[in-house]
Amino acid sequence: GLAVAFAPLATYASQIWPEVLGALAVAGGLVLAGSAVSARAAAVGVAALAAAVETRLALFTFPIAAAACWPTRRRTSAFLARAALLGAAALLALLAARFFLGHALGAPRSLATLFQLEPRRALLAAGGLLFDPAGGLAFAAPLTLLALVGIGRLLRRGGMGERAAVLGLGLTVFALLHSVEWYGGGSPPARYLMASLPVLWLAAGLLLQRPPAALGALPLLLPLAALSSWTLVTRPHLSINEGNGRFWLGQLLAGRFHTDTRHLTPSFLVPSSATWLFPLGVVLGVALLWWLGRRQPAAPRLLGRLSPALWLLAMAACTLHLALRVDRVVELEDAQVQHRGGTVEPPAGTWSTYLHRRGWRLGNGESVLVPLRLAAGSRVVLVGWLSGPATQGCSVTVAWDGGPGVPLAVAGEGEGRLELPTPADGGRHTLEITLSAPAGGEAVLDRLVVPR
Known about the structure:
Layout: H1 2-5, H2 9-13, H3 19-33, H4 37-40, H5 42-53, H6 58-69, H7 76-101, H8 119-131, H9 142-146, H10 151-157, H11 160-176, H12 197-209, H13 222-234, H14 248-257, H15 273-295, H16 298-305, H17 307-324, E1 329-331, E2 338-340, E3 343-345, E4 359-362, E5 367-374, E6 380-387, E7 394-400, E8 406-410, E9 416-420, E10 427-436, E11 442-449
Antiparallel strand pairs: 1-11, 2-5, 3-4, 4-11, 5-10, 6-9, 6-11, 7-8, 7-10
């Protein structure tokens, strides 16, 4: 019941995405694979229809169809007949993709690109599918992520259909390791893993038959799962991953506390120290719970009962950290920055925004107002670049805490760094940056850096 009520199913079922059809096709294929022999051929039709809707779904559905059609008797004629049926279904699915998408595998992909793996990209894609807050499972669907623990039991105790479905999950993940769009491209979290829900839920069911003692800490995940699901369903615009490394909760906190929160966001699109620390903390936490469950079976259940108090302590610690933290890097397109004119760079709707240089584009007379918490004697450096006539010469006016502005002359092409006059005393300050440029001249303000 929790799996159905929470994300990602609740999110995708309330929007229009083919991934819900993919999950239904996988579930239907598994049912047909376990039915009478006369009904198993229908699994091939289900696979073909799903692949015709979304070519990528073939990685899930055709292994199940192959398992359903696997001959029970070792006859060459039966094997060839089933292979011909699968081949015809695959050909129809590829022709449908060619007709609707212009490419059999969905341009710009090809078979060759599947094997052109870059180790860093593959590591970021694999980690992002699990832990990225905007595109993975850990924040949006922690209960579904937990179900991965039961995959081993499903392989041992499931039939050929279930094993084929796990193979389909592996093939889908492998196909995403080379992709710059592993996060889903403007979709709710875990788009490409959505079709695996029937497999993961079966694994979760087997896990609950003989639950390990560590599972007693499961209530720790419920507040996060409930908050994420309720937010993404009731505010669907927050579910769209723009591919810029932001996370809706981090942006809300940034706007509320007027401070940077990116250092707390384990984004796998725009990596930071949190990108590696968060997965490491999760793995160590799970290992500790597992060890506690084997040594002291009552300890995980005690942690589960204490989950409200532990979450309140965590939120209090986060609030204190945000209130007292000294800023180091502030991205000028983030929510805590007040924009008085200008537009986001690159423009909204740009594909895979994280691959481009990012910032806030200002024209003549436009400005940004940046809240900062500084240590005494800090230096502040503005990073950005000029475009159009502004490259021949313009000025940036800097004003602290509503005081008089100080104009600074800038010129040139390419990214540059400009050290700003900074107040000597520490604490909370507000920095206003205004551009004065000739007609058509613009500046893109990337970030503020406070060197240590």
